[in-house]
Design a protein that fits this description.
The structure is a single chain. This protein has 265 residues and is mainly α. It is built from eleven helices and no strands. The protein has helices spanning 9-25, 27-30, 35-58, 63-80, 88-108, 115-131, 138-162, 172-184, 191-214, 218-245, 247-262. It is elongated.
């Protein structure tokens, strides 16, 4: 840069990305080398992403280039950890993906609601907990799930249910957070995911109904409430009749599900 006008700070970042990906591609070959040769290559591969991001921030190269650095390095670490779910590279990859989402929400989409950042971080914690579930005991896993899901649903629920400054368009946030937690726990089947996800979804649907009724005229509101009460009563009567006529079959079905749920965490 002191001798020619061709080079600039941005080219330094792209050169760093090229070297990082070259080192990642050559990692399998470098693993066969003696330790004295492996350590410098591994150290360079781990330090270059941090140095590239610091270079972007120090020289003010913009958010777009910072997102490129974070996103591409996350993909690189995901590639390095693809063969082992408990690889430390997966921690770096997942952290990078979460950081990419958080920076995008803050700088590009201008989100200023707390749950816009708690939900991505919470999902990252849940995924990380599932990747390393063999290294943690069931009690610790349940506490991690409980605290994370409470933070996700609580932050989203506050804006959607309690804060009147925001429109009903905020309601899909807890609707997303609830099934997302369930989806992560689909295969290991932790019961806490199902219970809290279902509870959050039901509370949110009731809140939507309440907000819709509050802004309606009194006559229309009373009509809808009457129809809902009548429908609920009819469903209860029909359910009681159906249960009495199909009691043996329903009891057997419930017992099978109890047996399955008993094996969940």
């Amino acid at each position: 840069m002191l001798t020619t006008g061709f080079w600039n700070y941005e080219y330094d970042v792209w050169a760093s990305l090229a070297v990082s990906f070259a080192l990642a591609g050559a990692k399998q070959m470098s693993d066969l080398q003696p330790r004295a040769q492996r350590v410098p290559l591994l150290t360079a591969m781990l330090l270059l992403p941090a140095l590239a991001l610091v270079w972007v921030l120090v020289h003010g190269l913009g958010v777009n280039l910072a997102l490129v650095c974070v996103g591409l390095h996350s993909v690189m670490f995901a590639y390095l950890g693809k063969d082992n779910r408990e690889s430390p590279y997966n921690i770096l990859a997942l952290s990078g993906f979460v950081a990419f989402i958080v920076v995008t929400f803050y700088s590009k989409l201008q989100f200023r609601a707390v749950h816009a950042y708690i939900i991505p971080v919470g999902l990252g914690v849940l995924v990380l907990q599932e990747l390393f579930r063999a290294r943690t005991n069931p009690e610790a896993r349940n506490w991690i799930r409980l605290v994370t899901l409470m933070a996700m649903l609580g932050s989203a629920g506050y804006y959607a249910l309690a804060d009147d400054r925001y429109a009903i368009t905020f309601q899909p946030d807890p609707d997303f957070a609830s099934p997302a937690g369930n989806g992560i726990g689909k295969f290991p089947a932790p019961a806490l995911y199902l219970a809290m996800g279902f509870a959050g979804l039901m509370v949110d649907l009731i809140s939507i109904l309440y907000k819709v009724l509050v802004h309606m005229e009194r006559s229309a509101r009373m009509t809808i409430v009457g129809v809902l009460v009548l429908a609920i009563g009819a469903l209860l009567v029909f359910g009681a009749i159906y249960y009495k006529t199909k009691k043996t079959r329903l009891d057997n079905w419930l017992n099978r599900w109890r047996g399955k749920l008993a094996q969940w965490e």
